[in-house]
Design brief:
heterodimer, A: seven-stranded mixed sheet, three-stranded antiparallel sheet, B: 12 strands, binds zinc ion
């Protein structure tokens, strides 16, 4: 294990996790709103600080994590997750409580993840998608619970095929995955309940 | 397991629960928000209070609360009942947070059986204490069956039960825990609030979270979520109406409690939401019986 895996966890485990949780709660209950998440953890690259804070807040030994290839291939990232979070890392997307994606352009289709059942729709993957920011060239117009009229979200990057998959994810409601977009220091939520008004069609 | 993370200078974990338990509850809360009206199972913990005292709501609040929060706790609309006072002082002790009785000052409001009269804002979270989260329980005692009914949206029996009310009483007799449908999908128990409060649930700017400790369920209404009380075309949903305004502050269009004044049948109706009533009296509003109870604020008017 490299030395940098041992540092860079929450500066304050109790209040750090509480602050991240409230940001997550606001993000997922108000889709489209951007929540700032200033440097609460210092993870090794290519794991970004906000994505790392989200899994440090929510994941533990009870919650398998799927990592996309650039993250899974980083020994420092695997060690950091092992030391600070203690979550098992799984290679099957369909077995993951959480998934962290560093390169959304190459991620597996949403339907490959854990989608829950009609009886237990809560037993599904929460994906954390790392993005560079929220001023991308494609703006999603959103409607649904948490949104007074409509809201806008422009994660960058936003792969075109992901938009179609998001619409399919909404169609299988109450099953489906929930998504947290994470730039280095901010997050935005896209729960399965959100409808995309300007989709691929 | 998480003891290494606890603040060493206090004998308590911050907000009582250990960090592993908070993570588990936080995960359940986020799934509840993503599936409005669906009851997420969680591993409810023993709390230092009996189940009837709102341990589900307490665990939800404990998983949310932070040093910047201002907490209000109400029981049937009042801040000063034993239940409300104990929960408020519990969090003042284990989380060191500021508490208030004023709805507008609170960032977190834990409630038993009422929704505050003052409209809530986007910066507030309302946490309900729930005794029985399953609206179909009295129709079907088996959990596996009610779960399947929710999965299949099989809510016909619920309508039959309400219609039997109409056949028997000429109207829907259910006045508390009146079932609602969330975003046209899940039938949900709003907890034993009077049906008077049901219209406050829909399209609220505030996030609403529901915690049932004994039954181990958490569910949620995100802000701006469509919540409809179940009804029939020929028997539309109607809230209770009161024949007179609040005797103390003169408010109408609020939920009133009946108070017995003496042995000779003397009685009056007063606001159930004590903060709302006091706020109105401080603003100079007077009811027709403002002197009758020697209530604070009443003397000043005489
Ligand atoms: Zn009053």
């Amino acid at each position: 294990m490299k030395a940098d895996a041992l540092s860079g966890g929450f500066f304050d485990p109790v209040f750090g996790a509480q602050a991240v949780f409230r940001a997550l709660l606001r993000a997922l209950s108000r889709p489209g709103e951007i929540e700032n998440l200033p440097g609460l953890v210092r993870p090794p690259t290519p794991l970004n600080p906000a994505a790392a804070a989200v899994i440090a807040c929510l994941a533990d030994a009870d919650t398998p994590i799927f990592l996309d290839r650039p993250l899974a291939e980083s020994e420092a990232v695997r060690d950091w997750i092992g030391f600070h979070i203690g979550a098992p890392i799984v290679s099957l997307a369909g077995r993951a409580t959480f998934a962290v994606i560093s390169d959304p352009e190459k991620m597996p289709p949403l339907a490959d993840f854990w989608l829950g059942t009609e009886e237990y729709p809560d037993r599904s993957t929460t994906l954390v998608l790392q993005v560079t920011g929220f001023e991308g060239s494609r703006t999603l117009t959103l409607q649904g619970p948490g949104i007074a009229e409509t809201s806008a979200l422009a994660p960058d990057p936003l792969p075109a095929r992901l938009i179609g998959q998001l619409e399919e994810n909404r169609r299988i409601f109450p099953r489906g995955v929930d998504i947290v977009f994470a730039s280095r220091h901010a997050i935005a939520g896209l729960p399965r309940s959100t409808r995309i008004l300007n989709g691929a069609a | 397991m998480s003891t290494a993370q606890e603040k060493p200078e206090t004998p308590y974990n911050f907000a009582y629960l250990d960090e592993q338990t908070k993570r588990m509850i936080r995960r359940a809360i986020l799934k509840a928000v993503a599936i409005p009206g669906y009851q997420v199972p969680f591993a409810s913990r023993e709390m230092p209070m009996p189940y009837g005292w709102g341990t589900g709501g307490v665990q939800v609040t404990a998983s949310l609360i932070g040093p910047d929060d201002v907490l209000k706790v109400i029981d049937q609309g009042a801040d000063d009942t034993t239940n409300a006072v104990s929960i408020r002082s519990f969090f003042a002790k284990v989380a060191g947070v500021k508490t208030t009785t004023h709805t507008k000052e609170a960032s977190l409001i834990q409630t038993r059986h009422r929704v505050p009269e003052m409209p809530l804002s986007e910066n507030q979270i309302l946490v309900y204490q729930v005794p029985i989260p399953e609206p179909l329980r009295f129709l079907e005692p088996r959990e596996t069956e009610t779960r399947l009914m929710h999965a299949l949206e099989e809510y016909g029996l619920m309508h039959v039960k309400l219609y039997e009310d109409i056949a028997r009483h000429g109207h829907i007799a259910t006045t508390y825990a009146y079932p609602v449908k969330v975003e046209g999908r899940y039938v949900m128990d709003p907890s034993p609030i009077p049906k008077f409060d049901n219209p406050k649930l829909t399209n609220s700017p505030a996030l609403q979270l529901f915690g049932a400790g004994r039954e181990k369920r958490i569910y949620a209404l995100p802000p701006y979520t469509r919540v409809e009380s179940l009804d029939f075309e020929d028997h539309p949903f109607r809230v209770q109406e009161f024949s007179e305004p609040c005797g103390l502050c003169g408010a109408s269009g609020v939920y009133l409690d009946e108070v017995i004044l003496d042995d000779h049948g003397g009685r009056m109706f007063v606001c159930s939401d004590t903060d709302h009533c006091e706020g109105r009296r401080e603003a100079g509003h007077r009811g027709h019986l403002a002197g009758a109870m020697g209530a604070p604020g009443a003397e000043a008017a005489e």
